[in-house]
Amino acid sequence: MKSARVENTVCARIPTDYGQFSLRYYENNIDGKEHLALVKGEVTGRDDVPVRLHSECLTGDVFGSKRCDCGEQLEEALRLLGEAECGVLLYLRQEGRGIGLFKKLQAYNLQDQGLDTVDANLQLGHQADERDYRIAALILKDLEVRSVRLITNNPRKIEALEQYGIRVTDRIPIEVGHTRENWRYLKAKAEKMAHLLSLGKR
Question: What is the CATH number of domain 6-94+131-193?
Fold first, then answer.
């Protein structure tokens, strides 16, 4: 059985509103998808590097959907990394918490019929969250990051990285508020998936 591996096959300079980054394109022999590392500054051999694991969300990241807070979280993470001396945003191709875009849109329809984001996934025969962070850990090891301060509200991401040998020294919260459209979504994540969110009244 082949050992899991990732390979950075191309890197390009990316100037953004949040500063200069390098975008590294990773291939792997685990899921066959192309994952990305957006890197600010020099992270090799550094401790306490701010890191965001951001799972792809076409509807939120690209189209500005208000059903979730993904697009706002992506923007806030870039702002935080832009203010830091160095940092990494991993853009992981795990649409719909790992179930894919087609099933995610089906889950949206079930949510419009009254199910929450967790129960909709279960109704479709999937787990609430099917993401795997092994590739993220392998990319961080390839970047030679010694330890990370993880930008997240999700304790499972911390547990997963540590399981795969990445030392997490701190958690940086990333709450971006809620709207009428995404309040039930965030409430379900807090109550059923242990996300660390301080939700007020709708």
Answer: 3.40.50.10990
| Residue 202: pLDDT band with limits 50, 70, 90 | very low
Q: How far is CA 190 from CA 26, 126, 194, in A?
A: 32, 19, 5
Residue of 17, 119, 129, 132 marked catalytic: 129
Active site residue 129: yes
Nearest residue to 119 (alpha-carbon basis) of 197, 188, 196: 188
Full-model pTM: 0.94
Q: Report pLDDT digits (tens) over 98-155.
A: 999 999 999 999 999 999 999 999 999 999 999 999 999 999 999 999 999 999 999 9
Verify whether residue 156 is a known catalytic residue: no
Catalytic residue, chosen from 46, 131, 171, 180, is 131
Give domain limits for the chain: 6-94+131-193
